[in-house]
Design a protein that fits this description.
By secondary structure, this protein is mainly α. 55% of the residues lie in helices and 0% in strands. The structure holds zinc ion.
Length: 75
């Protein structure tokens, strides 16, 4: 394989239309204070900040409440 100069490499990359990989959710700013934000913290393997922790708790409580309401109290 012939060695390419930086300029040639650059041209080649442009020619084949190589794009930078999309960052996906990891590159978006965290929506702190929301359940989504909490998920983003988890995804990045970092500790949740206080607003996100609270938001997640609220979300779980809501889901739990909805479930128990729906089942009419399964106890
Ligand atoms: Zn947060």
């Amino acid at each position: 394989m012939p060695e390419l100069t930086d300029a040639q490499l650059e041209k080649l990359i442009k020619d084949i239309g190589l794009k930078r990989p999309r960052g996906g959710s990891e590159r978006k700013p965290i929506a702190h204070g929301t359940y989504r934000g909490a998920r983003q913290h988890y995804y990045r393997k970092e500790p949740l900040c206080a607003p996100c922790r609270q938001a997640e708790r609220d979300y779980q409580n809501e889901r739990y409440a909805a479930r128990t309401r729906q089942s009419g109290g399964a106890r």
